[in-house]
Specification:
By secondary structure, this protein is an alpha+beta fold. The chain has three helices and 28 strands. The protein has three domains: 100 residues, no CATH class; 118 residues, no CATH class; 128 residues, Sandwich (Tick-borne Encephalitis virus Glycoprotein, domain 1), CATH 2.60.98.20. A hairpin with a 7-residue loop joins β13 and β14. Pfam families: Flg_bbr_C, FlgE_D2, LlgE_F_G_D1.
Length: 398
C-alpha cells in the first residue's frame, strides 16, 4: 500500500477512536461521578527529515479529573467529595480495591454500605482515621440495658425567704433496663450549722414514690462552706452513695453514686442547673445516619446512637496514571504510584458532604463541537483513501 494510502487509513483509525471517545463522554453526561476522557493525537515519522510523515496515531486517552456539579438528593447515604480524594470500594468479584467519585451508596439488608454494584464501601472503625480501610457495616444487634450507677447533680441551694425546699427527679435504670424515677429533695436549711458560717441541708430520696430509708444513704445531710462551696468532709469526691437494692430486689442497682461536687449555696434563686444519670434501657436498631464528613452512626429505639466509623478517602502520587475498570471505577497502576488513605478534612483530602452527589464533568456542547471536527477529519482521510485508490487504478490501466 502506498504511503499516502497508509496515512489515510491511520487518519481514519485515529479519527474513529477520537469519535468513540467523544461519543462516550456524551452518553455519560448524566453518569454520576463520570470523568470525561480526551483522545490525544501524535504524528508518526520514519526518522528521516527528508521523508514525509508516516501518519497519525492516538497517543493516549486521558481523563479530566476536575469536579462535576453538585446534585442535591437529600439522601444521607449519597456522598460528594469537595476537593481531593476518591471513595474506596472493594470489588468482590475481582477481590481488588477500586476508586471512584461516585458516592451513590446504600445500606444493604446485612447492614453493609455498598455501591450500585454491591461493592463494599471501605472506611475506618470509630476512633481510627488512617491505615488500611475495611468494609463499613452496621451491627444491628440490640443494645443491652445498662444499670444506672452514677448521677450528677448540679444545683444551687440559695437563700430565699419562704423557699425552704427543692425537688428534682432523675431517670434511673435497673439491670433489665426498666425505668424508675429517683426523686431527690433538699430541705431543712440550717445556717451556721454545724459550724459558724456553714449551712446544712437535709437530703431525702424516694424511688417511684417509695421512700428510701436514710440508713441506705451514706449521708443524709450536706454542708456548704461560708463561700457557698460544698464541704466534702465525709463525702469523698463530693458524692453520696444510695443503696436501691431493698426496693428493686434482684433486678436492682446495688449502689448509685450521686455526685454533688458542683453544688453551691450561693445567695439567690434555688435552681437545678443540670441533673443527669448514666445507664440506659435496651434498644432495638432503628436506622443508620451518614452525616457530613462521612461519619456513620447507628441509632436505636432507646434514643442512643453509636458511631460506627468514617468513610475512607484515597489519593495517589499521580491520579492521571489510574486505569479504568469494567465497572467504571478506577484501578491502581504502577503509573499512578502509591495510594494514601485518609478521611474527610484531614491533610491532603477534601471534605465529604452528605445528601448529594457529584455529577459528570462532561461539557456536552464542547463534545458535540469536537465530534463535528473529528467527523470532518474522518471524511478527509476517507477522501484521501478514495483518491489513492483512483490513482492506483489509473496506473494499472496504463
Amino acid at each position: 500500500m502506498s504511503n499516502y494510502m497508509n496515512n489515510a487509513k491511520m487518519g481514519i483509525d485515529a479519527a474513529s477512536a477520537a469519535l468513540a471517545s467523544s461519543s462516550n463522554n456524551i452518553v455519560n453526561a448524566e453518569t454520576i461521578g463520570y470523568k470525561s476522557e480526551s483522545a490525544k493525537f501524535q504524528s508518526i515519522y520514519a526518522g528521516s527529515s527528508k521523508e514525509a510523515g508516516s501518519g497519525v496515531a492516538i497517543a493516549a486517552i486521558t481523563r479530566n479529573f476536575n469536579s462535576g456539579s453538585f446534585i442535591v438528593t437529600s439522601q444521607d447515604t449519597d456522598l460528594k467529595i469537595t476537593g481531593k480524594g476518591m471513595f474506596v470500594v472493594y470489588n468482590k468479584s475481582t477481590s481488588q480495591m477500586e476508586y471512584t467519585r461516585n458516592g451513590n451508596f446504600t445500606i444493604d439488608k446485612d447492614g453493609h454500605l455498598v455501591n450500585s454494584n454491591q461493592s463494599n464501601v471501605m472506611g475506618f472503625p470509630a476512633g481510627q482515621t488512617s491505615g488500611t480501610p475495611t468494609p463499613l457495616s452496621i451491627d444491628k444487634t440490640p443494645l443491652k440495658p445498662t444499670p444506672t450507677d452514677n448521677i450528677n447533680l448540679n444545683v444551687n441551694l440559695g437563700h430565699v425567704d419562704k423557699q425552704d425546699k427543692m425537688l428534682t427527679t432523675v431517670r434511673v435504670y435497673d439491670s433489665v433496663g426498666a425505668q424508675h424515677d429517683l426523686n431527690i429533695e433538699f430541705n431543712g436549711e440550717k445556717r451556721n450549722t454545724p459550724a459558724a458560717g456553714q449551712t446544712q441541708w437535709n437530703i431525702s430520696v424516694d424511688l417511684d414514690g417509695k421512700a428510701i430509708d436514710k440508713s441506705k444513704l451514706s449521708t443524709s445531710t450536706i454542708t456548704f462552706n461560708a463561700d457557698g462551696s460544698l464541704n466534702t468532709t465525709g463525702m469523698p469526691n463530693g458524692t453520696i452513695n444510695v443503696d436501691l437494692q431493698a426496693l428493686l430486689g434482684s433486678y436492682g442497682v446495688n449502689n448509685v453514686s450521686m455526685n454533688l461536687s458542683a453544688a453551691t449555696n450561693f445567695d439567690g434563686e434555688m435552681k437545678v442547673r443540670k441533673v443527669d444519670g448514666n445507664g440506659q434501657a435496651s434498644g432495638e436498631f432503628a436506622n443508620t445516619e451518614v452525616t457530613d464528613d462521612g461519619y456513620i452512626t447507628a441509632r436505636y429505639t432507646n434514643g442512643k446512637s453509636v458511631e460506627i466509623g468514617m468513610v475512607a478517602l484515597a489519593d495517589f502520587e499521580s491520579i492521571d496514571g489510574l486505569a479504568v475498570s469494567n465497572t467504571g471505577n478506577f484501578k491502581q497502576t504502577k503509573a499512578a504510584g502509591s495510594v494514601n488513605y485518609g478521611v474527610s478534612g484531614t491533610s491532603g483530602f477534601g471534605r465529604i458532604n452528605s445528601g448529594g452527589l457529584e455529577g459528570s464533568n462532561v461539557d456536552s456542547s464542547s463534545e458535540l463541537v469536537k465530534m463535528i471536527n473529528f467527523q470532518r477529519d474522518y471524511q478527509a482521510s476517507a477522501n484521501v483513501l478514495k483518491t489513492g485508490k483512483a490513482l492506483d487504478q489509473a496506473i494499472l490501466n496504463i
